[in-house]
């Protein structure tokens, strides 16, 4: 069915052919957070160990949406499957008092953070393989929501790119896991640092999901357009990258995808 | 998180999971009730707080912004735990009104106020608040203004254009219950006895600031740092962050910050394009977001967005706030004398609405909204173009109106400029 195939494509991403890959979620003039919720619930259902760096929303927000999508974050957190960094809450601790030791959000106290090394150390610690024989969870996943806000907090784009590079080396190459990150793309050249970040990440990623608004403006039945682009960053660009475009409508508990122009409201 | 959760959902922080895990069933068929405060996980039903109501969509706790028409556009009201950013109009004529409506609504509902300003003393701002319209004088106000309108009586049925009767009316009439959303009379001041019952904390920057001897630890502008510390102090004093669980009555803290980002706060975002502390404003908003999310408070911030030189900062400020409303007044622009806009005082743009605890949000279908300050009331209406009844078709006026708002909002996603597309 035309409206199901897009979602099935998205669910196929967690299968083995996309292990050890960086997926970039990009939104331009619309809200792409539904993609973050989808990937979070998807990887938790697939019994992967997830480290979620949530920089813009609180735990209960993701929890409530996750319950609509069929996962309970509190249960996953208790079992040790989910490591959650709720930056909005922990930023208050570090902002108003001097921290005792290294803190993942240490860059908040600096004028222009050189690097995100404490944050990388946090991720490394969270996703390190368990000692002992049996691995309870499948390959680890790092999920970041979102990277553009780091630029607002004084971190340079180069430092964010370095952080992603280090995480990719650990999570994707060494641990054979996945890395999924959301960035905002403003489109116009107003924010140069953000454009630098987006183009730097686009070149490194294997899969780019770009949610955009419709070119014709606001529509009640079609909320936007999703462009899916498969890339091979390490190989030469002789083979053409595969790309697909779907239009979507977000509903209360799901997102329905359909081919361009074939919205159920129109047919 | 301060926002209300549905009855079956878990509590906010992972620390208080014990009570939440018992109620782990999460079907949406459960009856949603207002639950205030995520910090405490106990009790399926808390006493409802005056001046708040749960959202229809997801049980989120909402407070009124003071303008029932704006509440309707924002999906019922301002969610507790979020920040509403108002982009000031060019000469700062109408945004102080919205600021005052917000504070007045807080006083009428009995909420605690925190007023921060670098320009006026908070006590002075509170003296200038508009008086609330009482229930019995609602009908009189609407009738007086209704006579000037050509809107048909609701009892009169349209004979020719009967399809238009089915269209929803944008303008909200006075609410039947006096608990949520009130109307205010801008020509009268708030009565003194009402002001005396109000509980408020003021932050006037020139009083609080001292010459900085050392560099701030987090490299924020001195004024911003002081304001954040003050807000944190008041939040924990008032117990809105759940730090006094033995307090039976809960209350909302309304935070109003005026003209954030202006040079009066010590920030040079409005003065130079490549400013020294270009991250001061955005860091402030981030920490404010953290403070507000973790407590039962609602915050309204007005920012002179038209003065900020670096457009990147405007974009970042928008994405760091939850709800963003922009005001554009016609004063001083060519639209003031345009006959098409003669009924209105300006345009209002809802640039962003948050998706809290949900994949979707209650976006209004109407994107062209205009406001006008009637004799006593501030109304927001759908922008109607009057029919062109002149003998000769005036091409200039048609094209002028056809140009949409220059900045497409995040929701409405206009990628193209209007003029390039309309070439017929």
From TrEMBL, chain B:
The protein's name in its UniProt record: Elongator complex protein 4
Major subcellular site: cytoplasm
Region (Disordered): 389-424
InterPro entries, sorted: Elongator_complex_protein_4, P-loop_NTPase
Localization annotation: Cytoplasm; Nucleus
Subunit structure: Component of the elongator complex which consists of ELP1, ELP2, ELP3, ELP4, ELP5 and ELP6.
Family listed: Belongs to the ELP4 family.
Keyword Nucleus included in the entry's annotation: yes
Role played: Component of the elongator complex which is required for multiple tRNA modifications, including mcm5U (5-methoxycarbonylmethyl uridine), mcm5s2U (5-methoxycarbonylmethyl-2-thiouridine), and ncm5U (5-carbamoylmethyl uridine). The elongator complex catalyzes the formation of carboxymethyluridine in the wobble base at position 34 in tRNAs.
Any GO BP: tRNA wobble uridine modification
Gene3D superfamilies, sorted: P-loop containing nucleotide triphosphate hydrolases
């Amino acid at each position: 069915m035309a409206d199901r195939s897009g979602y099935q494509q998205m669910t196929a991403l967690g299968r083995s052919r996309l292990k050890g890959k960086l997926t970039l979620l990009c939104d331009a003039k619309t809200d792409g957070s539904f993609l973050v919720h989808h990937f979070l619930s998807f990887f938790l259902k697939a019994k992967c160990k997830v480290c979620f760096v949530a920089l813009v929303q609180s735990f209960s927000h993701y929890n409530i949406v996750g319950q609509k999508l069929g996962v309970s974050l509190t249960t996953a957190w208790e079992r040790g499957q989910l490591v959650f960094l709720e930056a909005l809450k922990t930023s208050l601790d570090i902002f108003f008092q001097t921290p005792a030791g290294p803190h993942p959000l240490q860059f908040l106290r600096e004028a222009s953070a050189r690097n995100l090394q404490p944050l990388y150390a946090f991720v490394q610690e969270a996703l390190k393989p368990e000692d002992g024989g049996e691995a309870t969870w499948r390959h680890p996943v790092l999920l970041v929501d979102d990277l553009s806000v780091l630029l607002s907090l004084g971190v340079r784009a180069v430092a964010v790119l370095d952080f992603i590079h280090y995480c990719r080396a650990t999570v994707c190459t060494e641990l054979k896991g996945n890395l999924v990150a959301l960035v905002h793309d403003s489109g116009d050249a107003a924010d140069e640092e953000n454009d630098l970040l987006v183009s730097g990440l686009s070149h490194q990623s294997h899969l780019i999901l770009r949610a955009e608004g419709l070119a014709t403006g606001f529509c009640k039945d079609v909320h936007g357009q999703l462009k899916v682009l498969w890339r091979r960053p390490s190989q030469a660009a002789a083979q053409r990258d595969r790309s697909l475009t779907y239009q979507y409508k977000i509903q209360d508990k799901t997102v329905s995808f359909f081919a361009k122009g074939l919205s159920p409201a129109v047919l | 998180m301060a926002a209300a959760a549905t009855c079956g959902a878990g509590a906010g922080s992972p620390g208080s999971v014990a009570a939440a895990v018992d109620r782990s069933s999460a079907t949406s068929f459960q009856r949603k009730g207002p639950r205030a405060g995520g910090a405490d996980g106990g009790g399926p039903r808390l006493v409802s707080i005056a001046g708040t109501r749960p959202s229809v969509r997801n049980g989120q706790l909402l407070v009124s912004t003071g303008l029932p028409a704006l509440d309707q556009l924002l999906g019922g009201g301002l969610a507790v735990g979020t920040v509403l950013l108002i982009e000031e109009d060019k000469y700062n004529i109408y945004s102080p009104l919205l600021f005052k409506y917000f504070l007045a609504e807080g006083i009428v509902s009995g909420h605690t106020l925190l007023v921060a300003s670098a320009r006026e003393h908070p006590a002075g701002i509170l003296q200038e608040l508009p008086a609330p319209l009482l229930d019995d004088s609602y009908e009189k106000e609407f009738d007086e203004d209704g006579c000037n309108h050509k809107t048909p009586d609701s009892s009169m049925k349209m004979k020719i254009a009967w399809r238009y009767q089915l269209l929803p009316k944008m303008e909200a009439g006075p609410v039947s219950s006096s608990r949520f959303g009130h109307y205010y009379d801008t020509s009268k001041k708030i009565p003194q006895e009402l002001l005396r019952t109000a509980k408020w904390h003021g932050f006037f920057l020139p009083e609080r600031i001292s010459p900085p001897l050392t560099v701030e630890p987090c490299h924020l502008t001195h004024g911003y740092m002081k304001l954040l510390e003050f807000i944190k102090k008041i939040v924990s004093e008032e117990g809105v962050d759940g730090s006094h669980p033995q307090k039976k009555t809960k209350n909302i803290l309304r935070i109003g910050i005026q003209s954030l980002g202006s040079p009066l706060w010590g920030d040079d975002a409005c003065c130079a394009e490549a400013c020294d502390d270009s991250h001061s404003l955005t860091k402030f908003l981030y920490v404010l977001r953290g403070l507000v999310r973790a407590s039962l408070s609602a915050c309204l911030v007005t920012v002179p967005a038209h003065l900020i030189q670096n457009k990147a900062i405007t974009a970042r400020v928008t994405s760091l706030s939850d709800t963003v409303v922009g005001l554009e007044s016609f004063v001083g622009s060519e639209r003031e004398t345009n006959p098409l806009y003669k009924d209105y005082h300006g345009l209002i743009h809802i640039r962003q609405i948050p998706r809290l605890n949900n994949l979707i949000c209650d976006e209004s279908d109407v994107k062209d909204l205009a406001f006008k300050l009637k004799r006593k009331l501030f109304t927001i209406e759908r922008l109607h173009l009057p029919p062109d009844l002149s003998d000769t078709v005036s091409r200039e006026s048609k094209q002028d109106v056809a140009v949409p708002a220059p900045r497409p909002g995040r929701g409405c996603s206009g990628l193209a400029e209007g003029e390039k597309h309309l070439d017929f």
